[in-house]
Design a protein that fits this description.
The complex is a heterodimer of chains A (151) and B (107). Chain A contains 2 helices and 9 strands. Chain A has a single domain, classed as Immunoglobulin-like. In chain A, strand 8 and strand 9 form a beta hairpin. With 151 residues, chain A is an alpha+beta fold. With 107 residues, chain B is mainly β. Chain B has one domain: Immunoglobulins (Immunoglobulin-like), CATH 2.60.40.10. Helix content of chain B is 0%, strand content 52%. Chain B contains no helices and 8 strands. The chains are: A alpha+beta (151), B mainly beta (107). Chains A and B meet through strand 6 and strand 7 of A and strand 5 and strand 6 of B.
Chain lengths: 151, 107
């Protein structure tokens, strides 16, 4: 492939971005260990399983200030088949915690929608903790055009 | 600064029906990450807790972190066993509590 002017500029920008990122892991953005610790804290150390929980988020968010997200957990919300709480994390935000939803038998179904901020392109993680202690996870990558956490 | 919350609850439902509730409140949700024009950090001021109760019983609640957008919006479901009142509360970092109530009739 011939090197166009645009491609050269993109490569240069990419090369410049790498040392910049290496300078501030943890400083401006959350470290991976923080996210893992929060997940372990919520799940009580259990390994999250796939399934049951569905996280809906846009593939591309033009404005990181308001990104609509929905979670839906397949559950009868009766007896033992009950969702206790759902934790939302964003692994590339300065602080990964987004929200924790608490459901009850009066919720009828374990589904909720809200709007969140995303500082940059990153993964949004949703964890559901069931009444019996099992934990389910879903993850979506959201591409962000304009970051939403201010300068 | 916060104005009256807006809540959408159906007027009527059949007994045991699961309804959808939508809530919106005006709040800037200052994240604590931003700086003013002199470079000083702007202190965090967000709504950190939202709850919904039906006739005094908890239905749904949420712990909010600064990553929730300004003017927090929630959509969730609730089971309606009988006629009654939904009560919604939002708790601000500064201790203020905003609330709203909506009746529903079971036919």
């Amino acid at each position: 492939m011939p090197l166009s002017r645009r491609r050269v500029l993109m490569l240069a920008a990419g090369a410049a971005a790498i040392p910049a990122l290496q300078l501030l892991p943890g400083a401006a953005f959350a470290a991976a260990e923080d996210v893992a610790a929060m997940m372990a804290d919520f799940s009580g150390g259990k390994e999250p399983q796939a399934g049951k929980i569905t996280l809906t988020a846009p593939e591309i968010a033009e404005n990181g200030n308001t990104v609509p997200i929905s979670v839906d957990v397949a559950s009868a919300m009766e007896g033992d088949d009950m969702v206790d709480a759902v934790l939302i994390l964003a692994d590339g935000n300065p602080r990964p915690e987004v929200a924790t939803f608490h459901f009850t038998a009066m919720s009828g179904s374990a589904a909720a929608t809200t709007r969140m901020r995303l500082a940059r392109t990153q993964n949004v993680i949703a964890l559901a903790r069931m009444a019996d202690g099992s934990v389910y996870m879903d993850k979506k990558e959201v591409k962000v055009t304009i970051g939403g956490c201010g300068g | 600064m916060s104005s009256k919350p807006r809540v959408k609850v159906p007027k009527t439902a059949s007994a045991g029906e699961v309804i959808v509730i939508k809530t919106l409140i005006s709040h800037e949700m200052e994240s604590g990450q931003r700086k003013d024009k002199d470079g000083n950090p702007i202190p965090r001021k967000i709504i950190n807790k939202f709850t919904c109760e039906f006739n005094g019983q908890p239905v749904f609640s949420c712990d909010l972190d600064p990553a929730i957008s300004a003017n927090p919006y929630f959509e969730f479901s609730a089971k309606v066993p009988e006629s009654g009142t939904f009560k919604f509360t939002w708790v601000d970092d500064d201790g203020s509590v905003y609330s709203d109530e909506q009746p529903i009739t079971v036919e």
